[in-house]
Each structure stands twice: as structure tokens, then as C-alpha cells.
Specification:
Number of helices: 14
Distance between the termini: 18 Å
Radius of gyration: 29 Å
Shape: flat
């Protein structure tokens, strides 16, 4: 196994930079350039100089992690140097001259996975945690890093594996048809239990995807209701063109905003009206598609011309805009589904709070949340397989056919945690990591 090195801190000049070394010769190589480390205990730090003979490069801190009690499960040394780009590159050059190889993207985490320090879902959570831009994303990644998904699936997989083994055992005694090692009633109950759990996990993907990629919020309503003005007010910048001319917005305009730790993805849509303009018709068609995909719809109504055509089957907040034109007339109190504002005057703070409250209600999910598309795809295949098992049990299919479906379910679950994963899949996953992690 090669000894690898990379800069673990972001590229650029800073107060300090951390260069990581991992592998069987990590301590010996670092010792040649710093100070005696062979007697250093794990989790200890030494203040020294990075040097080659009389040539001193920098004053550094050297932290030693002993195998297997390190991130990668190997001997690891981290050198904290000053954050000059020149110094960082020289440290790497000196280390590679001394016998290290430059690490590939994600190679440190890949070694942690291969050395049993974490499963594949936890490895992927490392990348999600690094990329997290909101508190909700951070919390989701941290839960996965702590084994939230793994613990859910390992219990199910172990129980299913036990029954699969019994079914396989029956096949070894096919000459004795009266022998039945796997109790069919127990297997039926287990299959139902697994189906329920997998159904919950796959259903959670919509919530997880919203947390990770932003809660899709469609801004809809009639033309000239103030939809583009509202988008600009929410974002605090002139993102969309505003005009009194009907049909100005002819295509969807998207942008994102983090409010109280939650990422929202706003889609300003073309206003609904009867039109013979082909381009505007296409824009309205796209608007309906955006509304269909949205989890929250801000349906904007002009209080001076309250036309309403709210979409059904969606979480809708009716925004009565241009409330400043009511000229002192009293309007109903705001609630969780109706609010009066003046987007033109930037009166959107109450609406932002309502959006956060609505999203938090959607994120209140009892149990593990799936946010990774790879996990979702594998869970869907596992769910299909366990449903075939249920149908086979109901139709009294042979153990051989049941075994095939049980194996399909086990394989799909094993792919998620990395118990059954091809090298091509692993390379694809870790290639998306940053260098040094």
C-alpha cells in the first residue's frame, strides 16, 4: 500500500494549512523532514521545524495518529504549516521526494472505507458534510455519518439473511420435500415488516432531497399580481424583470435563498391568463410543470383584483399582495395559509418566517431520512424484490424462486452500505470528493 499525501485545507492563502500523510511509511517519512516521531504516541502534537538538512522551510506542528485509531485506519501524520501557497507546495514536494504519492480525490476516505472505519453511507456522508451549506444539510449529513442509515438497514438485512439461509438449506434437501426449515408464516411477517420500513425510507427521499437541494417553492398567480416583485423582495436583489405589461415573465426564473438554516429554491413562474401568444402559452405550460414539482406554492393575489385559481393537492400559502393599496381598509388576520404584504415595499419578513415554519413542518419526519439518489434507487429495487417475495409466498412458490427474490433484496441493501459494491461504483463515488479528503 502506497503512502499518500495531500493538502486537506481549502486551496489559497491562509493563517495555516494542513498537509495530511497516510500509509505504512507515514511516520517514517514525516520523521525525516521534521523530528523523531517513532516514539510518539497517537493523538500527540509536536512543535518542530520542517527541514532537509540545514534547509529549513517552516515552523510547524506535527500531529501523529497511530493505526488503527485514525481516520483512515492507517498511520497518519498531519503537518500544520503556515498558509503561504509557496510553503504548501514545497511541503508537498518535499513529501513526494521523500517517498509519498499524491492522493487521488477522496482517497483518504476510500481507505477509511476499505479498512472498515466506516461503511459506504458514512463515507458519502463525509462528502455531504463538507458540502453542507445549511444547518438542515449539516444535521442530515451528521446523522448519516453517525450511522443512521446503516443501523436501520443492518438489522433488516441480518434478519433477511437468516431466512434466506434457511430457504437455501431447504434446497440442499430437495429430495425431502417434507422438510421446511424456513417457517413461511414468519417469513411472510418479516417480508411485510421490511416492506413497511423500505416504503418509509423511500418516501423520505422527497424530504431529504428538499433539504439537500433546496425546498422547491413556486411563485404562481395571475399576471401583474406581483410575482416577480415578490421574488426580488425575497432575494433582496433585482433578479426578475418587473413591468406593468401583462405577460412580461414568459419563462421560469429560479434562484435560491437560505432562511434560518433552510435552503429554499424559488421559481418565479409566468402569470396565468388566456392568451393567443404561442411563446407566452409555452411559459404558462412550464409554470404548471414547476407548480407540479414544487413542495410549497406561494399563490400571489392582487388585493385590488383578487382572481384566484389555487392549485389543489399542494401546500399553498396565499399571498395577498399590494396590501398598501387597501388605504387603511382592514383585512383579515394573517394565518398559516394566508398573508397580506406589500412586495413593492419589501414587506416579506413575516412571509419568510411563515416559509420556515411550513418547511420545518414538512421536515418533521420520524425516522431516518434518505437524501442520496443512489440509496433511493437501491431501496426502490429492494422494495420491488421484497414485494415479489410477498407475492411468491401468497402463491406458494417454490423455495428456489423465493430464494432468487430474497437474494435480489439482500444485494440491493448490501449495495447501499458497501457490503456488495463494484470497484466501478466505488471509484465513481470517491472521485466526487475533494482532494485531501
Amino acid at each position: 500500500m502506497d503512502t499518500i499525501t495531500a493538502i486537506s485545507t481549502p486551496y489559497g492563502t491562509g493563517g495555516i494549512a494542513v498537509v495530511r500523510v497516510s500509509g505504512p511509511d507515514a511516520i517514517a517519512i514525516a520523521e525525516r523532514l521534521t523530528c523523531p516521531l517513532q516514539d510518539a504516541k497517537g493523538y500527540t502534537v509536536r512543535h518542530t521545524h520542517l527541514h532537509r538538512g540545514e534547509d529549513v522551510l517552516d515552523e510547524v506542528l506535527v500531529t501523529v495518529f497511530r493505526a488503527p485509531h485514525s481516520f483512515t485506519g492507517e498511520d497518519v501524520v498531519e503537518i500544520a504549516c503556515h498558509g503561504s501557497l509557496y510553503i504548501q507546495q514545497e511541503v508537498l514536494r518535499w513529501l513526494t521526494d521523500a517517498g509519498c504519492r499524491m492522493a487521488r480525490a477522496g482517497e483518504f476516505t476510500q481507505r477509511a472505507f476499505l479498512n472498515g472505519k466506516m461503511d459506504l453511507t458514512q463515507a458519502e456522508a463525509v462528502a455531504d458534510l463538507i458540502a453542507a451549506e445549511t444547518k438542515a444539510e449539516k444535521d442530515l449529513a451528521l446523522s448519516q455519518l453517525r450511522g443512521g442509515i446503516s443501523s436501520e438497514l443492518s438489522v433488516l438485512r441480518d434478519r433477511l439473511l437468516q431466512f434466506t439461509s434457511l430457504v437455501e438449506l431447504e434446497l440442499d434437501f430437495a429430495d425431502h420435500e417434507e422438510l421446511e426449515f424456513a417457517d413461511r408464516s414468519e417469513l411472510t411477517a418479516l417480508a411485510k415488516e421490511i416492506e413497511n420500513k423500505l416504503s418509509c425510507l423511500t418516501a423520505s427521499f422527497r424530504t431529504g432531497n428538499a433539504i439537500k437541494n433546496g425546498v422547491p417553492v413556486a411563485i404562481a398567480g395571475a399576471t401583474n399580481a406581483g410575482k416577480s416583485t415578490l421574488l426580488n423582495a425575497l432575494l433582496g436583489e433585482e433578479r426578475a424583470i418587473v413591468s406593468d405589461i401583462h405577460g412580461t415573465t414568459r419563462d421560469t426564473v429560479e434562484d435560491t435563498l437560505v432562511i434560518d438554516g433552510i435552503l429554499f429554491r424559488f421559481i418565479d413562474t409566468a402569470g396565468f391568463r388566456e392568451t393567443t401568444d404561442h411563446i407566452e402559452e409555452l411559459g404558462i405550460a412550464r409554470s404548471r410543470q414547476a407548480i407540479e414539482k414544487a413542495q410549497i406554492v406561494l399563490y400571489v393575489v392582487d388585493v385590488t383584483n383578487p382572481q384566484r385559481e389555487e392549485p389543489e393537492g399542494k401546500t399553498v400559502i396565499t399571498v395577498y399582495n399590494k396590501a398598501d393599496l387597501l388605504k387603511g381598509a382592514k383585512h383579515p388576520e394573517d394565518d398559516n395559509h394566508h398573508i397580506y404584504i406589500s412586495a413593492k415595499h419589501g414587506e416579506v419578513d413575516t412571509l419568510k418566517r411563515l416559509l420556515v415554519k411550513t418547511a420545518q413542518g414538512m421536515f418533521h419526519y420520524n425516522g431516518t431520512i434518505i437524501s442520496n439518489a443512489r440509496h433511493y434507487e437501491a431501496l426502490t429495487r429492494a422494495l420491488e424484490a421484497v414485494r415479489r417475495v410477498q407475492a411468491g409466498l401468497k402463491d406458494s412458490l417454490s423455495g428456489e424462486l423465493l430464494s432468487m427474490d430474497l437474494q435480489d433484496c439482500l444485494a440491493a441493501l448490501g449495495e447501499i452500505t458497501g457490503q456488495i459494491t463494484s470497484q466501478e461504483v466505488l471509484n465513481n463515488i470517491f472521485s466526487k470528493f475533494c482532494i485531501g479528503k
